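hey m, so remember when u said the tokens were messed up on ur end? i reran from scratch. heres the input so u can diff it against urs
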Amino acid sequence: YEFAIKYFTDTLNHLVNSDHNLRATYLNNLGVCYNELGNEKEALKCYQETCIIYRDTNNDRGLGTCHHNIASIYYARGRYSDAYSQALEALDYRKENNLQKASTLDLLGCICLKRGNPEAAEDYFKKALKLRLKCLNQLNPTHPDIGISYQNLGGLYKKAFQYENARLHYSRAAEIFRYNYPKSHQLVKNINKYLREIEQSP
């Protein structure tokens, strides 16, 4: 990532001011690199600059991506109200029923769960799952994103002490993760742990 950061930074320094879309793309990619390295402050700065460019150029798709990325950072920082408002903005720009919209719906579900609103979280998680199944079921019914949706719903039902419902959704997630990843993968290890916890529940 450090090499990529240097590359994107050097490229941005040499871009002419008229290359708005290219500048926004490099800024967003730079933000992704900083975020992967755990430098949320610099990532947020890049995403916010990208948002300004996309707003000036009326790029709705880009704005959807920017607001989603900003919401993800606020969520990671525990700033759930800010994350919620940014995710709603992202959803407003992501009107097409595609995987990007499903990702934002999923994020909204996670945010609502943290804010103590499990009913809204369930609604968002179900919408995300429905959209992912619609987009992926014929092409790849074992896509990991579908597994993520099942896992999130399983976690929600576990918190609500609906253990049978939680086990059902965790089991579906486990099938998908085990199909895609080795036993050592974190998603597989986590889902196996969640299933064991369900088995030990009263």
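this time it looks ok to me. The radius of gyration is 19 Å. if urs says something different then somethings off w ur setup not the seq
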